[in-house]
């Protein structure tokens, strides 16, 4: 062999060796890169599983507190009102939030109610979990007792926010999340001493449902929860520990290994295409880069949802608390003021109740969008849960800027929302707290803003309130009046009905009477309805108060010679889908014929244009109960509403009656109302008749019925009976509408 041939051969060998070395180096690099990528993928999946479980652990107490922090819950637990507990505290929580088991535990440690999968089960079921639950209850009660040592007579403020949650192995071998929260009053009207707290215990089994939820949200393939780790080399696992560090079980899943999967797919092609090694290597590197980018995007998404609300995409409570702490720290260093706005939607529950929870979710998204358009570039808007939002306003130089922002928030949310073709009106109450004290803590700032929010709600809602110290005298007086009204509604003490007769315009005989509620307060004397009816509507007492008045009026009418009685009904009562049924029950219990009952409603009720209101009015009129439209002419009077809803009587507001003698325009309006009633076959009653000239004008116009001080003032039941007897002696009563 020639020297050149030897050189060429050596060159070829060197090239082959170099190429082989390059291929091996490239292969080694590929395997190393693939291993790194797959390690990052598995690390991301491990973090995602951990974050998913932590989110569930954070969510369960919030779900419990939607019903556990509520004065009505404490009241009904003490009364052991089982239907109420089922609808609001036990079965409802289990069914709506998916809690597998719910126990209500009395202060003496005995179970009051047991629920499994939304259905009540025997109390003996509690015994199956008692061995795990009771030590946790003792631990929680000791924690609450320690917190309430400064004021054991009223522990609510000290223990609000306390609870206990852990992952435990139950006696039957299953693993479950066990969360317990004290049931607390939501306002100062109810005092609860230390040791008197009822407990709400929720349990969610760690099993396929939890694993599927986490796996679906974070894209973890075939995620399972196992009490014992199975010997499967193709799966990876992460232990689940309780607070004591004991292993409760394992989450295992099929890891996503994009790089090795890619090599497996492209390996045969690389062997067959050695001549295109460089090109194949380049393509591999590009594919690996794209895979890395997708993993980074996936990891960023998981991190985002760990600190953001999945519905509105606003920061959640965790990110809010971190940012508030940073803002306060920066404010101390730079001398910049921080203002915290806590806001709550007014009447949000009624949207959920009437239009459904999907509409409520859509409303929250639109509210978040409106609020987001108002906040500054460096401010932070967060959704804390439910219909609660918070805004951290930073670098505030003038407090007037913060107050102006709060007013813009209130004004913006006053505008109607359109949800699935329905126009919805809500409003917002806002509480503000300015961090003027450099040493104020984040929790103190939140607590004081919440107190200002409470003042805004109790001041009539749809407004903002700046924290200015402890509750003022006016707020305390209002809270005391609310507590007295609750007691009066519950016991009937101090409440009474008076009756103002309604007369035939032609014969001046008594046709019927309007029942009017009065309250004889123990300290303030007799209060006018204007002082307590609106309070009853705002604080959820009007339904019970209205039914009390209706039953009282029906019982009196049955026992008297009164032809019929008219009772005022609040629009809020019509939000009850069973309102017509409740009226029928009262008529049956009292024995009053439906034709002897007339209910008075306002124009505002008809303006809601609600199918539920229309159906309720239809059922009432079909049974024979008459419907009168009170204060007609003071609102948006529409013939179409009268025809759509069905009305039997129009009542001319007294503001028109008082001007009949001196105002020609008012006379024309009243004559038009009377003509309208005649054309639509409706009776017309004029309210507020106080002079003989007014009576004569109305009589000449053809008004059917008169009511006012000229004829009779509101009177107690015995005085009404005397008037009826006197009327009977003069002439027969006219029993007609």
TrEMBL record:
Residues 336-469 form the GGDEF domain. It holds the Pfam family CHASE4. GO terms for molecular function: catalytic activity. Residues 478-728 form the EAL domain. NCBIfam families: GGDEF. PANTHER family: DIGUANYLATE CYCLASE DGCP, MEMBRANE PROTEIN. This is Diguanylate cyclase (GGDEF) domain-containing protein. It comes from Devosia crocina. The lineage of its organism: Bacteria, Pseudomonadati, Pseudomonadota, Alphaproteobacteria, Hyphomicrobiales.
